[in-house]
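Trying the structure run again after the queue cleared.
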Amino acid sequence: MTAGILLSCENKETVDQTPESNAEITIMSLDPGHFHAGLIHKSMYPQVDSTVYVFAPEGPELKDYMNRLAGYNSREEDATVWDLQVSTGDDFLEKMIAAKPGNVMMVAGKNDRKIDYISTAISNGINVYADKPLVINKDGFKKLVKAFGEADQKDLLLYDIMTERFEISTILQKELSMVPAVFGELEKGTLENPAITKESVHHFFKYVSGNPLVRPDWFFDTDIEGTGIVDVTTHLVDLVQWEAFPGVTLDTADVEMLTAKLWPTVLDSSQFNLVTGKAEYPDFLQKNVADNKLSVNSNGEMNYTLKGVHAKVSVIWNFQAPEGAADTHYSMMRGTKANLIIQQGEEEGYLATLYVELLDGQDEALATLIQEELQERFPGLGLEKIATGKYKVIIPEAYHNGHEAHFAQVTEKYLEYFTKKNMPSWEVPNMIVKYFTTTEALEKAEEK
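Done. Tokens:
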């Protein structure tokens, strides 16, 4: 990096130059406005230089990011050794492009401008590792398709962070759905009774890495963050594709959007203050304030077909989970021989739990699959009979490593694709289909 004022995790000001490094990857973190930007650094990676170059405007979001990494560096167990070199100013994007001290841009923050950051990075020969969603509307989608085309021409890696592929109950749901003796074939379903259902409940106020999560005020402006139908739904649409059509290259023509809707979560001023630390609603949110209450269009539902298979995806945002509760996930895959159901409610202790409902008396085939065939890859799996034809898959606690750990797992996958050039041919086309689906749903919802 050209000489300039840089800030380390200890907030010491130094004048520095780019140090010599033999690492294959050096990360540049651009405007880290979402806590996911910090979570990828909860672990160290042998391929990644310990110096992270940060380009961002000054403010509480940058401070939160720096404090998060400082906490990882100072923890007692498995402490990291990240060295942050931070360049501040409103021209942070221009500074990153001019200096270009790394070869991978990591971006997690304001979703309305994320695609422009991505496009600029690709145009300047920089690989991209980005938090979801990459785009939040059709204009962004068109730019994304162009960015993927340019990345392909320049042999650059553009990839989004799909942590939910690493949740053990989802992995096993997919595994069981691929065994005809147990699952049969995936049903086609109907609008009223989809073959695949994915539902997710999230909370504005929660704890991350043991600390209360402070969200930026812009997070509650859906013009910036995106509505509920294009944000968290990205994960769920990805899982529908990944589980229903494993290894299959999809096309936008495979998607038919049937119905979609949006509805708000309403926060009062005290709730807004608790989660943002702001005493008043900022001017840019006043458009959504009435009677001193803020309406956030954070909830969404879509019903669509993918290659003729009916899928339902929905996301709900509440303000805060009940005591002892957490974000939850529900999923069902309906086969001709079995239903595979993930539940994460109070009965499950808010731990994602996989159930199997047999429709064809294939108990022996299920037992063999769980207790014998899957043991080499997933040692310790068990099976508990709950009722006639209904079983709970017993998953050892070690496999439930938690949402934050999944960021290291998906980062390791990105690093593998980067260093070995072995990303499956279906990944990019299916990312395009994924964002086509979410932005189609938005257009359908806004028709009303």
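The chain has two domains: 5-160, 164-446. Worth checking whether this holds up in the mutant runs.
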